[in-house]
Amino acid sequence: MAIMSFITVSLLFSLGLFTVLTRRNAFKTVIGLTLMESAVLLLLISWAYIPDGWAPILPLKGGGVDPLLHAFTLTAIVIGACDLALAFAFIMKLNKFERTVDVDVFRRLKG
After folding, report:
1. Confidence (pTM)
2. How far is CA 61 from CA 31, 52, 55, in A?
3. What's the number of domains the chain is made of?
4. CB within 8 A of 34, min separation 6: which ones?
């Protein structure tokens, strides 16, 4: 079970890194970063897994899983969704100004 999670995490992270490094489209770059973030969150959840573990609600029937990593992951999902919305809003505003979503064009907009 754990090996399958780590394989999935490495594939997701590699796909996101490949997308970030090879695509010049700003939307695709942000999607690649989101894939990499999802891979890290899946890794956190995989670390919290305990075989035959129960939810840490009283009364415990065995070894309880660690709820701290689940709380971190839930918080990161909410923050990631806000970051994604903000990034898309910036890209849409730059698209309206420059009429393109090419990252190389955005680099020349230094203040």
Report:
1. 0.83
2. 41, 10, 9
3. 1
4. 16, 80, 84
